[in-house]
Amino acid sequence: MSAEPSERSDLPAMAGTPATPPASHQRRKAERPSELLDAALQLFVEKGFAATKTEDIARLAGVSKGTLYLYYTSKEDLLREVISQRVSTRIAEGLAQAAAHQGSATELMRTLLVDWWMQTLESDASGVFKLVVSEVRNFPEIAELWFNEVSQPGSQLIGGMVQRGIDSGEFRPVDVLSVVYSIVMPLVMLCVHRHSLGACECPGMSLEPQAFIRAHIDLVLRGISTHPEP
Amino acid sequence: MSAEPSERSDLPAMAGTPATPPASHQRRKAERPSELLDAALQLFVEKGFAATKTEDIARLAGVSKGTLYLYYTSKEDLLREVISQRVSTRIAEGLAQAAAHQGSATELMRTLLVDWWMQTLESDASGVFKLVVSEVRNFPEIAELWFNEVSQPGSQLIGGMVQRGIDSGEFRPVDVLSVVYSIVMPLVMLCVHRHSLGACECPGMSLEPQAFIRAHIDLVLRGISTHPEP
Amino acid sequence: MSAEPSERSDLPAMAGTPATPPASHQRRKAERPSELLDAALQLFVEKGFAATKTEDIARLAGVSKGTLYLYYTSKEDLLREVISQRVSTRIAEGLAQAAAHQGSATELMRTLLVDWWMQTLESDASGVFKLVVSEVRNFPEIAELWFNEVSQPGSQLIGGMVQRGIDSGEFRPVDVLSVVYSIVMPLVMLCVHRHSLGACECPGMSLEPQAFIRAHIDLVLRGISTHPEP
Amino acid sequence: MSAEPSERSDLPAMAGTPATPPASHQRRKAERPSELLDAALQLFVEKGFAATKTEDIARLAGVSKGTLYLYYTSKEDLLREVISQRVSTRIAEGLAQAAAHQGSATELMRTLLVDWWMQTLESDASGVFKLVVSEVRNFPEIAELWFNEVSQPGSQLIGGMVQRGIDSGEFRPVDVLSVVYSIVMPLVMLCVHRHSLGACECPGMSLEPQAFIRAHIDLVLRGISTHPEP
DNA sequence: GATGAATGAGGTTTCATTCAT
DNA sequence: AATGAATGAAACCTCATTCAT
C-alpha cells in the first residue's frame, strides 16, 4: 500500500539537500496511477467491485472523481489494471526467489514456499486472491489472465519441486498435481480468508499464519517423504 | 436444490388426507419462498450480491418483481435467508452422518470427510462458500452466523476426530487445530473454486474432485499417522 | 401536441355516461409513449438534442425520469422514434390528400401544396424539419430515414405534378428537379424558420405564412406556365 | 476560410516594413484568435454548440485547452464571436459588390445574387446559416444580431432591386417582401442543406448548386417580369 | 504567454422498492 | 395473492473552466 517506488530516483541528491522532489505537479502525475490502483484494490477487495463507488476510490487516493478518469477509462479498466499489475509484480518476485535458492527439494520447499507466501499474505497482494475469486465470473478476461500468469506458472514451479524430490528419491512417487493442490490450496485460502471472514470482528482463526504455514508444509512433506522423520 | 422437489412430482395424496385441492396452484404458493431462495442463491453466487438484480431473481423464480416482496422484505433479507437456510440444512446433514458412523479415527475420516464434502461440492450448497467469502465484509451479521453455525461446529467435529486418533495412538501428537485447517481448507477452496475460476471456460483444474479429495485426505492421514503405510 | 387519439375508442359510450376511460393505470400506459414523444419533440426542437435534459422531457410529459426508460431505451432512441413517427404520419397524410384530389396540374398544385404545407407548418411536425437539419450530422441514420421517407417520395410527388403540367402543355419544358427545389425549399425553410429565428422576440418575418405560400406558388406557376395570366 | 491565409504564404515583407521578426512564431500568435474561430465554426456547424467540446476546438486550432481561454472567455463567447465576425465580413462584401454593379434590375439580380450566393455557399460562411438556425433559440442575442446585420440589410438590398424593377416597368407590381422571400429562401436553404443533410453520405440533392441558383433566379424573374421571354 | 492536470457540477441511466389495480 | 408501472436516489462518467507550473 502506498509503496510507490517514486520512479527513477532522479539523480543522486546533492549532499546536504534533503532530496527535494522535483516539482509537486509533476511528482503527483507520476504517482497518481499507482495511488489510484492502491485505493481501488483496497476498496474492491473490501466491498467488491460492484459495491465500490468510483468517488470513494478517488477520495481514498486523494483526488477528485474526475481525476480518476484522466488515468483510467472506466471502473472496469481499473479492475483489470489492479489485478494484472499486482499479480505480475508478485509472480516476478516468486520466480526471482526460486532462481536464487538451491538445495534439496525438501529444504527448498520449506524455505521458498514459506517465505513467498508469508510475504504475499502480508502484502496487499493477498487481496487480489479474494478479488479474483469474487469477480472472475463477471469479467471473463480475468480468468484468462489468472490462468496464464498465475495458475499455470505457479503449478509449474511447485510441481517442478515436487517432481525433483521424487526423482531424487526424497519423495514417494505421488501424483504431482494432486500434491500441488494439497500444498497450495490452504495457502490461497489463507489469503482469501484474510480479506473475508478473517477481516471481521468474530473470533476467527486463532492461529498464527506463519506457524500454520510451517506446520502445513511440514505435514505435507511428511506425507510425501520416503523417510519421514520420526 | 436440496429441498424443492419441483412441482412436477404430484404423487397421489395418502388416503386420509382430504383429496388434494387444485394442487398445482396451492403447491406453487407453498413453494414460492423456496423457489425464490433457489433463484437468489444461484444469481448471488454467480454475479455477487450487488450485481444481482431483484428482477432477475423474480424472473428466474417464475414470479413478478412485486411478488418477491410478499415473501422477503428486501434483497438483503433474501441474502440472509439464503445463507442461513442452506447452511443449517447442510450442517445438520453432517452431524447426522457423523453420528451414524463409527470405526477408527482413520477410517472415520476417510469415509465421513470424503462423503460429506463430495455431497456438498455437488449440491448448490457449495455456492454458499463462495457467496460468504465474497460478501461477509459487507454484511457483518453473516460472519457471526457463519462462525456459530459452520466454523465452530465444523472445527469441533473434525478436531474431535483428530484428537481421538491421537488419544488412540493412531496419530502423532500434532497440533490439532493446525491439522484441521490443513484438512479443511483445500476442501473449502474446492467449493469456492467451483463457483469462481472453475466456472470459467479456461482450462482450469484438470483433476477429478473426488480423486483429489481422497488423495488429499490420504496425504494428510499419512502426514499425521504414527505408522504410515509403506 | 397532446393529440393522442386515445387508442381504439372503446365501445360506443352508453348514452348518458360521459365515456369513462377504462382504468387510469391502463389508460396511462397506453398514452405514455405518445406523451413522451410529444414532450421530446418539443424540447429537442426548442433546445436541440444535446442541450435537452431527459429529466425535462419526463417532467414535461408528466412522469418521472425513470419512467421514460420504461418506454425508450435511451435519449437517442427517443430522437429516432420522434422523427420516424412524426414523419411517417405526415407523409401518409400527404399521399392520401394527393390521391383524393384531381384537376389540372396548375389547380392541383395550387390546392394540394398550399393545404398540405399549411397543415404541416401549423402542426408540430414542422419542428421535425428544424430538428433534422440540426441533428442529422450527429446521427447519420436519420439521413437515410429522411431520404427514403421524405425527400424521395416528396420529390416524386411534386415532380410528378410538374411533369404532368409539362406533358399537358400547361407548363414550359423546364428542368423538373430544379423547379421542384424552387417550389419546395421556401416551404421547408418556412418550417425551419418557425422554430428558429421565427420563434424569437425579434421583429421577424412580417408576412402571413398562408399569404406567402399562396404568393410563392403563384409566382412559381407563373414562372413555368406557358400562358401566364396577364 | 475567408480570412487567415494560412501561415505558409510568407511573402517577403514590402521594403520599408522592418525585417519581419522570427515570423512563424510571432505570426502564429497574431493568428491564434482567428484560427480558434475557424476551428470553432467548423465544429459548431458540424456537431452543434452543445455537442462540441472545447478541447476539440483547441486541438483543431493546434493549441491547448487552456490557451483558448486566453483569447475567449467562454465557449459561448466563442459562439458569439464566430457568428458576428463571419457575418459582418460577408455582408460587407455583399454591399461592396452591390455598390460596384449597375444595369437593369433584371441584369443586376442575375449577376449579383448568383455571384454573392455562390461565394457564400462555397466559403465556410455558409455554415453560419446552419449554426444560427440551430442555435438561436438557446442564445437570443444572436437573433438580434442576425436581424440587424443580416435579415434587415439583406431584405433592403434585394427588396430595393425588386422595387427598382417595378418602378422601371421591368417587373409587375408584385408584393415586394413576398418576392424577396421567394428569391432568398431557397438560397439560404441551400447553405443550410450543405451543412446538414447535404453533408451526409446519402444520395442527396443531385443538382449542381450553381445551375440551380441560376435556374431559380431565372424562374423568379420570369414570374415577376412584365415581358417574359417566350 | 502556454500548458495540461485537476476539479466538481451536472447529465444519463439503473434499479430496489412501492402501490394501485 | 399477484402484478408491473412508477418512482427517485444514487451511480458512472463527461467536460467547461481554473490555475500552478
TrEMBL record, chains A, B, C, D:
<dbReference type="InterPro" id="IPR001647">
    <property type="entry name" value="HTH_TetR"/>
</dbReference>
<feature type="region of interest" description="Disordered">
    <location>
        <begin position="1"/>
        <end position="32"/>
    </location>
</feature>
<dbReference type="InterPro" id="IPR050109">
    <property type="entry name" value="HTH-type_TetR-like_transc_reg"/>
</dbReference>
<dbReference type="GO" id="GO:0003700">
    <property type="term" value="F:DNA-binding transcription factor activity"/>
</dbReference>
<keyword id="KW-0805">Transcription regulation</keyword>
<dbReference type="InterPro" id="IPR036271">
    <property type="entry name" value="Tet_transcr_reg_TetR-rel_C_sf"/>
</dbReference>
<feature type="domain" description="HTH tetR-type">
    <location>
        <begin position="30"/>
        <end position="90"/>
    </location>
</feature>
<dbReference type="Pfam" id="PF00440">
    <property type="entry name" value="TetR_N"/>
</dbReference>
<protein>
    <submittedName>
        <fullName>Transcriptional regulator</fullName>
    </submittedName>
</protein>
<feature type="DNA-binding region" description="H-T-H motif">
    <location>
        <begin position="53"/>
        <end position="72"/>
    </location>
</feature>
<feature type="compositionally biased region" description="Basic and acidic residues">
    <location>
        <begin position="1"/>
        <end position="10"/>
    </location>
</feature>
<keyword id="KW-0804">Transcription</keyword>
<keyword id="KW-0238">DNA-binding</keyword>
<dbReference type="InterPro" id="IPR009057">
    <property type="entry name" value="Homeodomain-like_sf"/>
</dbReference>
<dbReference type="GO" id="GO:0000976">
    <property type="term" value="F:transcription cis-regulatory region binding"/>
</dbReference>
